[in-house]
Predict the structure.
Amino acid sequence: LFLVEKNIPTPTTFLSLQAVHQAIENNTLELPLIIKPRWGMGSISIYKAETIEELNVFYKKVKNEIQSTYLKYESALDIDKSVL
């Protein structure tokens, strides 16, 4: 919110795959998209989706990767909202 309040451009983020699909269907979001865990650092588990099929595959892949790393503790409350 700090960056938005200062009128600094920021990427739109989503907390669910369903919300991303809805935004694409409503033409408020376009591919390509970056898929990554909400927590973590560096370039671990970051993917670029060029198609809807890639979006779905990368979302599942990141979710599985989260569950097999220390990020599972950060994401324990709601794994479905652990991928951006």
Summary: The beta strands are 33-35, 47-49. The chain has four helices and two strands.
